[in-house]
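re the bet — no i am not wrong, look at it urself. input seq straight from the record:
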Amino acid sequence: MEMMLKTNELCKTFKDQKAVNKVSLNIPKCCVYGLLGPNGAGKSTTLKMITGIMKPTSGEIIYDGKPWNRGVLEEIGALIENPPIYENLTARENLEVRAILIGAPKSRIDEVLKTVSLTNTGKKKAGQFSLGMKQRLGIALALLADPKLLILDEPTNGLDPIGIEELRELIRSFPKQGITVILSSHILSEVQMCADYIGIISDGVLGYEGELLPGQNLEELFMDVVKKNRKLQNIA
């Protein structure tokens, strides 16, 4: 099985605290990989290292078989925390600004608007969008460079059930287009419906990684991993 991304004993320390402790991820190509963990588990810090926002304290990141370098960021689209949108611009204008910045062809704008179902927003300013529409615009911005890897950090936060379902269908469609997705979340039911593989992080430690099997009790597995990691942390 070909890997899109691997991390080998990835660590991030802030002063004396290890936010990420020897995390070794194995993310196959063209799948949805659910990175699960309680709030503050180290998920966002891990993703920030993969996207170059933070520098690892130690360990390595292998992208598509080669050691990570800043050049790979051209192939990675990311939506971490809030979508980076200009609220006074329309969806199309936001994408036009981004296309100029990254040198993407204008033809991509219509493609990504169609992908995220924002074609008919016309002159409506992004500031007037619902949360779900803003999230979809954030994903459109991340897709503009035609990435091979798409990283979504808690993308369903604050969405209503319809927004969540639309986003779920969108995420599931990406592997068929040759895009590998890392989906970070603490909402187990969402990941259960989306992911092919999962990794469970708590207290900065990867306690479980594997294929998500039909009918698997994800909540039980999640709680077991979190409790075991906490017990180990207390012993340490």
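see?? Residues 14 and 57 are 9 Å apart (CA to CA). told u. also The chain has one domain: 3-234. so pay up
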